[in-house]
Amino acid sequence: MKVITAxxxxxxxxxxxxxxxxxxxxxxxxxxVLIAIERRFLETGSPREITxxxxxxxxxxxxxxxxxxxxxxxxxxxxGSTYILPTLSKTSELxxxxxxxxxxxxxxxxxxxxxxxxxIAAGRKGYATTVGIDTFADPRxxxxxxxxRAKDDLIEVISMAxxxxxxxxxxxxxxxxxxxxxxxxxxxxxxxEDGLTQGxxxxxxxxxxxxxxxxxxxxxxxxxxxxxxxxxxxxGPLVDxxxxxxxxxxxxxxxxxGDSPATTGAxxxxxxxxxxxxxxxxxVVARRALQEIKPGQLVNIGAGIPTALxxxxxxxxxxxxxxxxxxxxxxxxxHCLSATHxxxxxxxxxxxLLDFYSGGGLDQAFLxxxxxxxxxxxxxxxxxxxxxxxxxxxxxSTTARKMTFCGTMTGDGLEAECDDGRLVIHxxxxxxxxxxxVQMVCFSGPQAALAGHDVMYITERAVFxxxxxxxxxxxxxxxxDVRTQVLDLSEFPIDVSPNLKLMDERLFRPEPLFLGLQx
Length: 519
Description:
The protein is an alpha/beta fold. It folds into two domains: 2-244, Glutaconate Coenzyme A-transferase (3-Layer(aba) Sandwich); 281-508, 3-Layer(aba) Sandwich (Glutaconate Coenzyme A-transferase), CATH 3.40.1080.10. It contains twelve helices and 33 strands. The strands form eight sheets. A ten-stranded mixed β-sheet has the order 21-18-17-16-22-25-30-31-32-33. α4 packs parallel to α5 (200-209), α4 (110-122) crosses α9 and α7 crosses α8 (305-316). The protein is globular. The protein starts with a strand and ends in a 17-residue tail after the last strand.
């Protein structure tokens, strides 16, 4: 292992290389090296025609992380599970870059990327899975392509043991750009101040066994033998170069100012004062979703209403210590923040956790639903002119024992209020979520129905379930007209249950429900 500067690291990336980069939003991003690569390209025109592979979106604000690749000529191809944060990346350079056909852009489910890296590392031909059949990854739909410039078939349908699988072919990795907290003088890497481990071991192994180069950005280098060997995430023999950036913080270019030891596991700290959300239609959805959780269940929550409101509302309902939260980034327990947890009980590899999910280990998941169609398909990856892409959404929603999607009935401008146990809608949002055909199938309703999975769609005014024939309306909010305020707002017909019920009127009152976990 050799310690070098960020500029020297940038010079090690040749034109035409295939590069994999670590990071999740502001966590574990080798930003100093990315800055140096961007500067080198703008000054010299090199490196050019890079193929870039990333398991998660990295970068927090516009101009950071993944956006540093958005220069004509720098990239040839890019493959990732996520690309932008719609709530933060309003003018994302990379989002525009993909739409303008400046790069071959592909989207794969997160675990397909992790497991393809594992296949590369192990010298296998690729990765086969049933996850993603009849979604955007299926070549009979999009084959993972995000734009017209992406023409190659990177995913194929194969038969394995009499069952259809999607097969992701392996390819060599020339450079791995990863980040950890600390390196020792032998190159061993630990993530003691990161709160996550991400897939850096898989990325480093894939590059090493492809004959490539592994470059790690760290905060410090310590003497060999001074770190506990059980803490080592990447063994030294895999690491070629280390770049030291002492002042790096996980969120140094975002709104947060550094890492709390309560998110990294260094110390358990009291949860900061929680500002409970005021009564709103979004909180109605969160409360109704909490009613679905059973004692002892392992629960995953995704972006949108689930992450923003379910954990805090659970605390308000005195359920905070009774729900076993997990997020696909590898974290269990504690209070879910987003990418990390406050006082986590376990931090594992996302590749392992997504495998655990895929095998049926997840009892229930609560995910967002920007668009739902007549087949029960859900889109989270292509929303108007933005391409957030689904991340682990497809992996989770395909295999969770129970799947609950959460969102308002209409979006962008919905005005409604809760009035003494009733819902009063003053103005509908400008776009409808229930559309004839979604723009991007990230969850396949027909596949879920075929597998007999339990699927719900919770809104502020109605609760739906998935049947073999499509969606069925099961509950409606007090004060809401079923015809004009529910069924007429869908672009496709929805069956009405003969046992249609009213949603619990307590959901529409400001005081806590004191839910308890229902057996």
